[in-house]
Write a structure and sequence with these properties.
Length: 447
């Protein structure tokens, strides 16, 4: 097992990793920018190294600084958390070259899954259902027009380097194709420096369902069931839950087996997530694979009683997984509490938390790095914390979530709490019958 792990991240996920390391008897090293001097991850870690000024590009994204911090402190592994360098192939490779175990995917795996057209082709060849469309990249406009006619409109153009909706265009009819093509290419080139596009039939009003998997160094993978992430606004997830109200045990088994098949086909090692779209007929299709621990991992931990960070560390150290799959024994839901103003387009609202009260009680977990007097810096994401609530049924989870949200006091800045409180009273949300378009016509004006 590792002697010392450096956590190449900040905020709640840095704390989350440190907590598990402490329970495993592994020493920890925090890295921090000058903006995070007073952060809890710095205090909770055994050692801390300042790696630069506030801007991410000069600190949390600076590979030489982080490798130096690992060398100085004699860390034998690095946990990248999510975001920052967690899916950076170069960083994964440099860690390997320095003999430091990267607790994440190999450079080759990151490259293969980071290129969405390659990832889709790989999964299709492995027998995972994919959406009809182009085999790989589109050669030119006429290639796209021909395929669109074949699969039928509406179609969607997607940037192969994309994800998160960038470089994506919906096309309803042939007359719109040229403009969509030009716009998608331009946006993709500007955002990713790669203008490669692929095409798919557009799936109307889907659910976003993802399967958590974990693979070991022997090539075996297991699944930990699904998370429903359909409550999103502009590709930002706000609420996640498990089990999904639309996933039957039969569908869970089918999606779980498809995810295992995909993961084992590529010899995936570590924790990963396979994202699917599920259509109104209950048919599911591979969308993307994430080669990192995700923000919403705690709901899976709560319903399966499985510490994903601990298992990530174990498989990185060469321990084999049990080989069984994990199924939800409870219901769990996560509300992302962000320093944003939901009444004004979720505009970031950084600043000092002048007064703070955290919720508690049975079935309530709060993963957060903040304290009274803490300043949310403007340089990073605006997450204050994740409120994770569990209970025996979806109905009880919603009641408990309302109770916990109403106990929570965060003064000094705007938060997403009023949005979550309103959502928990929404009849359509409570029915469990909604799609990824649900928030498109939600009224945020009175929050
Ligand atoms: C789609 C789709 C419908 N049909 N692909 C959005 C982000 C990127 N990861 C893929 N996305 C979508 N791909 C086909 N063929 C609809 C979306 C989509 C979406 C997916 C999941 C959650 C929220 C979404 C919001 C808008 C569009």
């Amino acid at each position: 097992m590792f002697n010392k792990i450096l956590i190449a991240n900040r905020g709640e996920i840095a704390l989350r990793v440190i907590r598990t390391c402490k329970e495993m008897g592994i020493k920890t090293v925090a890295v921090y920018s000058t903006a995070d001097r007073d952060s809890l991850h710095v205090r909770f870690a055994d050692e801390a190294v300042c790696i630069g000024p506030p801007q991410s590009k000069l600190s949390y994204l600076k590979i030489p600084q982080i490798i130096s911090a690992a060398e100085i402190t004699n860390a034998d592994a690095i946990h990248p958390g999510y975001g920052f360098l967690s899916e950076n192939a170069e960083f994964s490779k440099v860690c390997e070259e320095y003999g430091i175990k990267f607790i994440g995917a190999s450079a080759d795996m990151i490259n293969a899954m980071g290129d969405k057209a390659t990832a889709k082709d790989t999964m299709k060849k492995a027998g995972v259902p994919t959406i009809p469309g182009s085999d790989g990249l589109l050669k030119d406009i006429d290639h796209g027009l021909g395929l669109a006619k074949e699969v039928g409109y509406p179609v969607i153009l997607k940037a192969t380097a994309g994800g998160g909706g960038k470089g994506m265009r919906l096309v309803h009819e042939p007359s719109q194709f040229k403009k969509a093509w030009d716009d998608a290419r331009q946006e993709a080139a500007a955002s990713f420096g790669n203008d490669g596009l692929y095409l798919e039939k557009f799936v109307e009003e889907p659910r976003h369902i993802e399967i958590q998997i974990i693979g070991d160094s022997k090539g075996r993978a297991c699944h930990l069931s699904e998370r429903d992430c359909s409550i999103q606004r502009r590709h930002q997830k706000l609420v996640e839950e498990t089990p999904s109200p639309i996933v039957s045990q039969e569908l869970r088994e089918k999606m779980g087996q498809a995810a295992i098949k995909g993961a084992e086909a590529i010899g995936y090692e570590g924790a990963g997530t396979i994202e699917f779209l599920v259509d109104k007929h209950g048919d599911f299709y591979f969308m993307e694979m994430n080669t990192r621990i995700q923000v919403e991992h705690p709901i899976t931990e709560e319903v399966t009683d499985y510490d994903l960070i601990k298992e990530q560390i174990k498989v990185a150290a060469g321990v084999e997984i049990s080989g069984r799959n994990y199924y939800p024994q409870l219901y769990s839901m996560e509300c992302r509490i962000n320093a944003e103003d939901p009444a004004n387009g979720f505009r970031p609202s950084p600043g000092r938390i002048t007064n703070l009260h955290m919720p508690g009680g049975h079935g309530v977990r709060l993963d957060s790095h903040v304290y009274a007097g803490y300043v949310i810096p403007p340089h990073y994401d605006s997450m204050i914390g994740k409120l994770i609530v569990s209970a025996q049924s979806r109905e009880e989870v919603i009641v408990r979530m309302k109770r916990a949200l109403s106990e929570m006091v965060i003064e000094g800045l705007k938060t997403t709490i009023p949005f979550h409180l309103k959502l928990m009273d929404n009849e359509k949300f409570k029915s469990g019958n909604f799609t990824t378009k649900f928030l498109d016509d939600f009224d945020f004006s009175d929050l």
